[in-house]
Amino acid sequence: QVQLQESGPGLVKPSETLSLTCTVSGGSISSYYWSWIRQPPGKGLEWIGYIYYSGSTNYNPSLKSRVTISVDTSKNQFSLKLSSVTAADTAVYYCARRISSGLLQGGHWYYYYYMDVWGKGTTVTVSS
Amino acid sequence: AIQMTQSPSSLSASVGDRVTITCRASQGIRNDLGWYQQKPGKAPKLLIYAASSLQSGVPSRFSGSGSGTDFTLTISSLQPEDFATYYCLQDYNYLVTFGQGTKVEIK
C-alpha cells in the first residue's frame, strides 16, 4: 500500500527557509493531490497547501506569501518550502495524499476529497 | 475562509458510553467533511469522509452525519483504544480547514 515519508532538517534558523520532502512509496504520485499539514506543539492541525501531480497548487491564505509546494514525478516526491520562518513555524510537519471518491446521491454523482494516507510526521524546530 | 467550530473541546467518558462530537461550518459545505482521530505522537487517521462514509477498516461503532453547516461524529460504544483527539476537516471550494479538535479522555 502507499506509504509517505517526510524528510529534511530538524532545525532551521529564524529568517531562513524551511525545506521538506515527502517520498511516496508503494504507488505512483500521478493522478492524486498531495498535501502538507502542520501541528505546533500542543496545538491543533493546520493545512498548509496541496499540489496536483501536474503541478497546480492551492495554499492556505494565511501562509500563501511564504509557501511553495512543488512535485517531482520522476522521483515520486513532492516538497515544501516555507520562507522567512520564525519560532511560530516550529511544528510537526505531515505530508498526506488527498484523494476523491464519487458517491451517487439522489441520482447524481458527487465527488468528495479527503486525505487518506499520511506520513508519520517530522519535527521542525526554528531556533538560532 | 470557511471556519470550522468544533465542540466540545474536551470531554470525559467511560468505556461503553455513547459519545457525540459536533462541528459547525461558517457557511454551507455540502457534505465535504471528514473526521480524523489522532493519538499522541501519531499522525491523524481518517475515520469518516463525505460526512457519513466510513473509511475502510474503521470499526462500525464510528458514524458520521450532517449536511450543509452542521455535522456530528458519534462513537456508539466507546472502547479503550478510542481515547484520542478528534478533528473535523472541511475540503470544500479547494481550501481546507480543520476544527480545533476534541480530546476524549477517560472518566
What does this 3D model show about the protein?
The complex is a heterodimer of chains A (128) and B (107). Chain A is mostly beta strands and 128 residues long. Chain A is 0% helix and 59% strand. Chain A contains no helices and eleven strands. Chain A has strands at residues 3-7, 11-12, 18-25, 33-39, 46-52, 57-59, 67-72, 77-82, 91-105, 108-118, 122-126. In chain A, the strands form two sheets. In chain A, strands 2, 4, 5, 6, 9, 10 and 11 form a seven-stranded mixed β-sheet that branches. A four-stranded antiparallel β-sheet of chain A has the order 1-3-8-7, with no helix packed on it. The termini of chain A are far apart. In chain B, the strands form two sheets. In chain B, strands 2, 4, 5, 6, 9, 10 and 11 form a seven-stranded mixed β-sheet that branches. Chain B has a four-stranded antiparallel β-sheet with strand order 1-3-8-7, with no helix packed on it. Chain B has 107 residues and is an all-beta fold. In chain B, strand 4 (33-38) and strand 5 form a beta hairpin. Chains A and B meet through strand 5, strand 9 and strand 10 of A and strand 4, strand 5, strand 9 and strand 10 of B.
Overall geometry of chain A comes to globular
> Ranges of chain A with pLDDT <50 over ≥5 residues?
none
**Succession of helices and strands of chain A:** EEEEEEEEEEE
Biggest protein-protein contact in the assembly: A-B, 24 and 27 residues
Itemize the secondary structure elements and their pairings.
The complex is a heterodimer of chains A (128) and B (107).
Chain A lengths: L2 E5 L3 E2 L5 E8 L7 E7 L6 E7 L4 E3 L7 E6 L4 E6 L8 E15 L2 E11 L3 E5 L2
Parallel strand pairs in A: 2-11
Antiparallel strand pairs in A: 1-3, 3-8, 4-5, 4-9, 5-6, 7-8, 9-10, 9-11
Chain B lengths: L3 E4 L2 E4 L5 E7 L7 E6 L6 E5 L3 E2 L7 E6 L2 E6 L9 E8 L2 E4 L3 E5 L1
Parallel strand pairs in B: 2-11
Antiparallel strand pairs in B: 1-3, 3-8, 4-5, 4-9, 5-6, 7-8, 9-10, 9-11
